Every structure is written in structure tokens, then in C-alpha cells.
Amino acid sequence: MSILNKAILIFILSLTLAACGASRKAKPITGSLPHASESNARIYFYRSKVPFLAAIEPKFLVDEKAVGKAVMNQAIYRDARPGVYEIKISSDMENPITLSLSPGDTRYIKAYGTTSVIRTYLSIEEVNEEQAVKDLQGQKLLAP
Q1: Residue 51's beta-bridge partner residues?
Q2: What is the pTM of this model?
Q3: What are the mean pLDDT values of the chain's consecutive 10-residue runs (144 residues total)?
Q4: Domain regions of the chain by residue span
Q5: Which among 49, 50, 109, 117 has most CB atoms closer than 10 A?
Q6: What is the DSSP letter of 22?
Q7: CB atoms closer than 10 angstroms to residue 51
């Protein structure tokens, strides 16, 4: 590979990685997270800080409807009425999480990189508030 080709490749990769950052509209998380109102519940969605699969941004789905993307260094949240919801990520549709939400609940869904025999992708898990707040420090929070 010639030096010119290497330089072009490095330039393209730099632009690609720069495009993977959090939205400029998002605000950095420096402390606790806002909670839902007394009558609604809130679900936070975020991905691990590991740059593994950084360019991949699958969609978070609630009852088959997209609510946002799993963007590196960015968290989103959605408020929901109390009830039962099925949470998925578009890169792993076969492993949903079922959430039963009560008024005032706040739940946290984390996307993380995983590998199977034939592919590498993002999957999701529910984490507790303590772990989520720790994971989210320094990331940006994008309001709906």
C-alpha cells in the first residue's frame, strides 16, 4: 500500500470516528440523573464506553418502535406510562428484555459489545441505578 493510500485511509478513518461522537445538543452528565414524574416511569438507554464497535449504532426499540440509537458516549431517556414493555436493540432482536413499569420507576438499559460464533454485535441488559450512574459519568444526556 502506498504512502498516499495510507494517508487517505487514515484521514477517512479519522472522519468516521469523529462522526461517532455524541450529539452537540446533549449535556454532559456530572451527577445524578433526573427521575420520572410521580405518574410516569422513565427508561434510560446507553451503551458501554468501550470503543468496541464504535461505528455501529443500532436502534433501541420499545414495543417494536425505535426510540433512539445506541450512540457512543451518549445516553437518552424516554418517559412511559406504567405498564409492561418489551425492550430490544436492532442488532440483537432475539433477546428482548421485558420491563414492568410502575408510576415513578426509573430503569436503565445498557448496550454492550458481544460476540457469537458468526458475528460481533451489540446486545442489551438491564442494570441497577448505581451501576448506570457510574457508567454514565462524563457521557452526554440527550433529552427527548
Answers
A1: none
A2: 0.79
A3: 53 44 58 81 91 87 96 93 97 96 96 87 95 92 83
A4: 3-142
A5: 109
A6: P
A7: 12
